[in-house]
Amino acid sequence: MMAIGEGVREEMEKDFETMLRLQHNHGQQGSVQRSNSITFRAPQEHFTIDDFELGKMYGAGSYSKVVRAKKNDTGNVYALKIMDKKFIAKENKISYVKLERIVLDQLDHPGVIRLYFTFQDSYSLYMALESCEGGELFDQIIRKVRLSEDEARFYAAEVVDVLEYIHGVGLIHRDIKPENLLLTTDGHVKVADFGSVKPTRASKLTVLPNTTYDKACTFVGTAAYVPPEVLNSCPASFGNDLWALGCTLYQMLTGSSPFKDASEWLIFQRIMARDLKFPDYFSDEARDLIDKLLDIEPTKRLGAGPQGYAALKMHPFFRGIDWKNIRKSAAPKLAPESTVVEDDDPQGSTWNLSHIGDGCVPQLPPVDASFNSATSSSETQSHISKLSKIDSFDSKWQEFLEPGESIVMISKLKKLQKLTNKKVQLILTDKPKLVCVDPSKVMSKGNIIWSGNSRDMSIHVTSSSHFKISTPKKVLSFEDAKQQAWQWKIAVESFQNH
Ligand SMILES: Nc1ncnc2c1ncn2[C@@H]1O[C@H](COP(=O)(O)OP(=O)(O)OP(=O)(O)O)[C@@H](O)[C@H]1O
């Protein structure tokens, strides 16, 4: 737990009281005028963390940790989003927190995560969210390798249903992706992560003072799902979410996003070129729908045209969907988490309370990391060397980087050991440096000793999914479920050859 002086603490608390005082949107142009404070649907309670029994950690974001929490007196279970005040202030995330809080407070749709109440203590802000025990759609795709068209149709239809609502209230989500589509125990979709939303001018929602509308061209979202116009700094539009829906549907059906590549820079190249390939097994309907969602022109994307969502819902891919009763219809069966012991952490996946107040770094799925097989090794090397000049698209892993250092490749791998296997996040940076991070404890497990000389450090690929890194002291064996063993070798060697 961080030590913090009494004076600083008082100041911080005052600051957060002010920070969470929010204003009505009177529909003014440009930015919202200040007016009376509002009453939240989700109240600001005076609870403490001791009022809850904490369970497993659901995950971590760039400025928060989300943990299963059972309220002692009522027995109600929540997903408690815990944000370290000092960290969010330091990382300039205050506006994200405020925005997510005020927006979630007003949204009312079965496909949107519900916010029940908030509270705070000296160190943290807490948001009690509806708990989604089914995990992320992302994990379902990984566990099933890819989804059937029937499964993908169901999930896509639920996302369409909720996007129609979100767009209807004048919000652009801007970060639709399988990681932000959470599933209830019975497998229905709930959209999460409203920290990046952008209200349109017409939005009737109450938003924050100084919120800008459609002029803003800020770069937000996740590399693999970003539409080309965002890369060209065009204003945000509903079309952004429809492009991301197209990418998500493609990922459901194939197991990976359509513009997947070894780095954000290469992904951006493919997005700009609309370098899109459909596998043979796609039905004509699936191919046509994705093609129409991934239209270069945002206003031509299905759902964004004059007929709006009616055109999207009428697409032949959705034939058979009962739109009015979609939330009542049976969802695909969830693939359970693997029961194989992968971690020798004696705490298992339960969460240690002492983590509250620590700096947080997310446990995120890897940035897409596979090389286009058509890319030659010299092209790859030049691409990789250029990567160092590009800032990481998000700041998720900054904790493990020095100022000016960038991530070149990152994947969640299994480190194979004699008795047990461990999940690790392996990060290659342009320093160059190879860092192993424990994703559940969100802690560095140390650097793998780097050498430019392949006699002192070498990578041996034993299959598309297995590779070993040999250093004078030890040999580390890794398994990459995404079968990117060769990509790791190419990426590391391109820096050794520099
Ligand atoms: N209501 C919830 N129920 C179950 N799990 C949740 C819930 N909300 C979030 N999670 C899990 O916790 C993780 C962290 O969520 P959080 O909202 O803090 O950050 P994020 O959206 O993943 O990342 P970032 O804030 O960096 O964009 C998510 O990836 C998700 O798996």
From TrEMBL:
Cell location: Cytoplasm; Membrane
Entry's Gene Ontology BP terms: intracellular signal transduction
Enzyme nomenclature, EC number: 2.7.11.1
- A GO molecular-function term, please? protein serine/threonine kinase activity
Ranges for domain Protein kinase: 52-318
Query: What InterPro entries does the record point to?
Result: Kinase-like_dom_sf, PDK1-typ_PH, PDPK1, PH-like_dom_sf, Prot_kinase_dom, Ser/Thr_kinase_AS, Ser_Thr_kinase_AGC
At the top level, the lineage of the source is: Eukaryota
Membrane-topology descriptor: Peripheral membrane protein
Q: Which UniProt keywords apply?
A: ATP-binding, Cytoplasm, Kinase, Membrane, Nucleotide-binding, Phosphoprotein, Serine/threonine-protein kinase, Transferase
**Catalytic activity of the protein:** L-seryl-[protein] + ATP = O-phospho-L-seryl-[protein] + ADP + H(+); L-threonyl-[protein] + ATP = O-phospho-L-threonyl-[protein] + ADP + H(+)
Q: Which GO terms describe its cellular component?
A: cytoplasm; membrane
Q: Which PROSITE patterns match?
A: PROTEIN_KINASE_DOM (PS50011), PROTEIN_KINASE_ST (PS00108)
Q: Does the keyword Cytoplasm apply?
A: yes
Which CDD domains did the record assign?
Answer: STKc_PDK1
As for family, the record states: Belongs to the protein kinase superfamily. AGC Ser/Thr protein kinase family. PDPK1 subfamily.
Query: Protein name, please?
Result: non-specific serine/threonine protein kinase
In its UniProt entry, the species of origin is given as: Dendrobium catenatum
Lineage here is:
Eukaryota, Viridiplantae, Streptophyta, Embryophyta, Tracheophyta
